[in-house]
# Entry
Amino acid sequence: MTVSQDHRPAHRAAQVTESGGPVHVAPVQPREPGPGEVRLDVKASGICGADAGMAANPKPAYGFPIVPGHEVAGVVTQVGAGVAGWEVGERAGVGWFGGSCGHCTACRSGDVVHCANRQIPGLSYAGGWATTVTVPATALIRIPDGLSYEEAAPFGCAGVTTFNALRHGGAEPGDRVAVLGIGGLGHLAVQFAAAMGYETVAIGRGEDKRHTALDLGAHHYIDGQAEDAGEALRAMGGARLILSTASSSKPLAGLIDGLTPHGRLTVVGFDGTPLQLPLDKLVMHARHVTGHVTGSPVDTEQAMRFALASGVRPRVQTAPLEQAAEALKTQQAGQARFRMVLTTGD
# Structure
């Protein structure tokens, strides 16, 4: 038994129907929520770098067609049996964390993000590049008033990832924190870092990024094309935390010199290239290199509340769902300013 709205508009999804096939929009049937699940009518869905990999997956876990999308904002439309705390008509979303098993060691320890059987929209089940998506109720994120659907969607991945990486990065207010990259992740990280009270250094490529970095709240800008970013940070006195949001791993080794003793390099953006690090510089100065991924629904809700209180907002470039293929190409080419978001118009 499910609770539902009476009307059932025609639904559609941006999908890939065969291995190596293109992204195209086609009609779809909503999937009825089973026990413990909720169906959303999607209003907006962000495009993340990982979505390209999802679209190209030759063996999707749920079979073809593939529907990418893990930054989803919409409205609860159906509530499955056994679901408490959610009602039809509520604003809700789902992010990279798309569900957990509830019984592994990580889940029992409260670390649902690192569940051994973690689900991810677009990888584990059809994602949010659609007008409808059905997800575990435990993955739902409450969207507060004050954020539009287009603003809320990126918090499910880019927002919560940078928010958590910064607040758990070991720096304290007044410490110097550097952000490498000023793109879909980095533009949020710069804003969050400044709002958290860190002396914020943005590291980009090209003098043309300086105005943007300062406008986002950075106190300093380093042009990584014109000077060695690690040495520039060292000349400032070093950074307690460097958050790498760039998709290229190439600059990371050179940033080690820019860390203070006991400083940390946290990586959230990468390209899979093997990384060679100067171990002597890590060991002799007790420095750390770590990775970070996403957050729980509660973390995402906290990131949204912090954003409302501090004025942090994702800067989005919208496109209708029907233009998903073109929007994905824009994102992959690094031409989005700053986060591509698909809208359904429903």
The domain at 3-157+295-343 is CATH 3.90.180.10 (Quinone Oxidoreductase; Chain A, domain 1). The chain has two domains: 3-157+295-343, 162-291.
